Amino acid sequence: MQEKLPTEWADVGITVPGHAKGQVKVFCPQCHDQRRNKTDKSLSVNLEERVWQCHYPPCSWSGRLFDQELLQQRKKRVYTPPAEPPPHLSEKSKKYLNSRSLSDNTIRRFKITDGMEWMPQTEKEQNCIRFPYYRNEQLVNIKYRDGAKNFKMAKDAELIFFHLDAIEGAEECVITEGEIDCMSAYEAGVYQVVSVPNGASKPGAGKAAPKLEYLDNCFEYFTVMKRIVIATDGDTAGRSLRDELARRLGRHRCVYVVYPEGTKDLNEVLLTHGKDRVKQVLSEAVAFPIEGVHTVTDFEADLDQLYLEGIKRGDQIGYPDFDKLFSFKRGQFTVVTGIPNHGKSAFLNQCLVRLSSRYGWKHAICSFEHQPVMHHAAKLISCFLGKRFDPSTINTTQWAWGKLFVDEHFYFFNTEDIELTVGSLLDKAKELVMRYGIDSFTIDPWNYIEFNLERGETETMFISRALTLITKFSRAYDVHVFLVAHPAKMSKTGKGFDIPNLYSIAGSAHFNNKTDNGITVHIDEMTGNPVVYVQKVREQPYTGVKGHSIFRFEVGTGRYAELDTSFSDEVPLYLDRKGYDYGLLADDPIKFPQDEIIF
Ligand SMILES: Nc1ncnc2c1ncn2[C@@H]1O[C@H](COP(=O)(O)OP(=O)(O)OP(=O)(O)O)[C@@H](O)[C@H]1O
Question: 90: domain range?
Fold first, then answer.
């Protein structure tokens, strides 16, 4: 089925006056023909947000336009390489590069040129240095940088590493945070060096980890690599990029640069201390702590950052009560338990959907309960859209949107095809970290895992070993692992089944001792409401605290709403400007000022 997501007003039959700005009222193409009041412009159109809503209640048609560029980039991956720029470099730009200790030879080697270019930041043409990006000697992209350090990449061009051809077939390389640092390493005689194309974005609360689209596009260049020296800047943003690069490329083969006092990147080292020191700094790069014994010196910079910024709360999924109890952090291990059919998987689905729609989390799911995986995808689409899975409730536009959303954020294991030991599931998850940068991994449920007991090992000993492996994986790969586990048979009192906790899980008390967090989903038999109990929080009170939150469950959509709040029946329409660039914020209904409603 080839649906087209609307990108122009004409695609949805809306006519807006050419000069219109802000918010306008127009005839609704869905209901105007059937209306008796032909003068009623019942459709409110917000031209900036690119959303609309009909205020004639029987119609209530609403929707949003999609960003053509975003869709092209994301779905079709159609890129347009820029034209080869003229080989001109002004004396002024050359002087600037020379002043950064870059020789004419290096400037020529990297084919640096300059020329006038329209810059969105200043809204005028500026003289810009052009850093060309090649793959197989073909120009793929250009970075333009003006004198005030504003930069932009070529329009619709593919994001790849700068100087990529230099690492083809290499077993060792250096990755820098900018072109000048990359050229500085080259200047110092380190030739297998590349730079990320768009620096490091400043991390912030509620902001997703840096998205390394360029790594997805160049992944094969790193498959044979044995040692990767990460030379991002020594500031907070640079460290965050460093950590994500190492997570994606595998910490075991990555080392990172520690800069001499008073410098924060390779170019500063070159300027201040010269070429030999650049080489020395790169050769003395230190390993990421994976396991073993550490001293404060090993992680001093990160510790200082913790001191300055404090321990951060994790990502909150947007339920006011539940958010006070619990937040989600990568690198942790959470067990979800509850009596069969009380909604463990359903609640987890809802959490995963919200973590994606709010923060862009990507999830790998090994679910034995949800097979074939297509059915699971359908449930997630329903939950995301807040619509029953039925063509009469989900129109083709919403359907296309839902598919795009699940396609971008979920990777499903086909449980028929894989060995079901903890080791092999984690190996598969490691692959997905490196290939797609997954943020969470769900195993649902535990009792399908094969117990491959070692000689003399009891079931309890095996569980302990398996949970240790999972914890190590979550820490080393900075992935939140969700493990759904059933309780042993629960006893029943007059008020219904007892509420299970981590000690109730069949097999071992290790489920309590060896996990970071424990959540129970339990239907209160007196009220029928699902109640979510946060039973254990390792990082109390930072990640959360113990307590419970009462929900309602919408069977048709699989959505949860807190007790006194309503289910949003709107397709999420908002463009989230707060940081996450996918532009979807589920459950936020479109808002128009009430006083503008005209019937
Ligand atoms: N609170 C609820 N009210 C009504 N139906 C529910 C509720 N919670 C879940 N369900 C439905 O019950 C079925 C089982 O839910 P789910 O798989 O999430 O439960 P579970 O606790 O994970 O069960 P199991 O232990 O068997 O895997 C699903 O069809 C789901 O839609």
Answer: 79-304
